[in-house]
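Q: Hi! First time doing this. I have a protein sequence and I read that you can turn it into a structure. Is that right? Here it is:
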Amino acid sequence: MKKIISFIACALFFIPSVSFGASLVSGQNVDVKNPILENAYILGQNLNIGANLNGDFVGAGANINIENDIKGNVIAAGANINITSNVTGSVRLATGKAIITGVIGGDLFVMGSDVYVAKNTVINGDLIVFAGNLRMDGVVYGNIQGSVNSVLVRGTVGKSIKMDIGSYANFSNDSRVSGDFVYSSAYTFEVPNNVILGTIKHNPVELSWRNKGYLGITAGEVYNKFMSFLGLVLFALIFCLVAPNEVTKTKNIMRKNFFKSLGIGFLMTISMPVAMIIFFVSMIGVPIGLILGALFIIAIYVSKIFVAAFVSGFIFKDTHSKWAIFGKLTLGLFILMIVSLIPYVGSIVAIVLFFPAFGAIAMRKYEVWKLVKDKK
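A: Yes, that's right. Below is the predicted 3D structure, encoded as structure tokens:
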């Protein structure tokens, strides 16, 4: 049922208002400085509505800033949407991050990652949110509905809150909900006294096996890490069958020149994305930029093999047997998988060891290039 409701909501969301009179504007950066007396359809990278609109506004862009009143409805999609003005109608947004400050005459419907309803905001209708995080400091005269991972209420709700909540819900002592607080969640949330004037009803939801865990490590994380481990083991097997000596030689470069390879790897990690952007800017260089991007992604994946060889090298001596090398890589990858499950420590170890592995790969390729060049 929830999937059907979400599908219908998505479908209705992108149905724009129909009008016979409309202004169509597009460009890289669009700054509306003069009032528009009809519906406005605006597309661009950055949109700034700095003048009043006497109709509906339909817009799409990376960054959308609405700072003057709109006497109609708003339908917008963008990475960041900031509304600091009044809208007489309803507002429907699809965004990564939305900040609402002003008066909304109708409903506010948002699909996104982070939604912030500021302190001075007034929503005369319902607030309907499907997002990761919702922070509501304003006034909603209607209901708050939808599905979020976390919600923080520090404002006033005229009716009820009816939501699916993932992991976190908090109400400040001065917040007020005139109706009920009905929520579905695997967790039970504490609500301060006299905040909910109606009833509080918790509909328990069984926690997904992926979200069950111990010491901050969930079953889903273990499953994902193990599947990644199996993929790397298969890749290591292919690598050992094709070029087993390259594993040993690259690992030795990493061990003997750890700090040098770390520095080279760090510089390459910074310079390659910059080079990609430069090539993408010039149309002629787009193919080169794509090739660099592909090589960078491959290097990130391949580096894990050499990190595993580096780690297992402290346990076993070097060998020329491809199967022995494969066994060492498998053990090294397993150790890295276990370490990666440790909160914070896993990420730090992965980053610290990636740079020297990346640098060692580059140094080894340079050695091969020099050998080929000298033979010629």
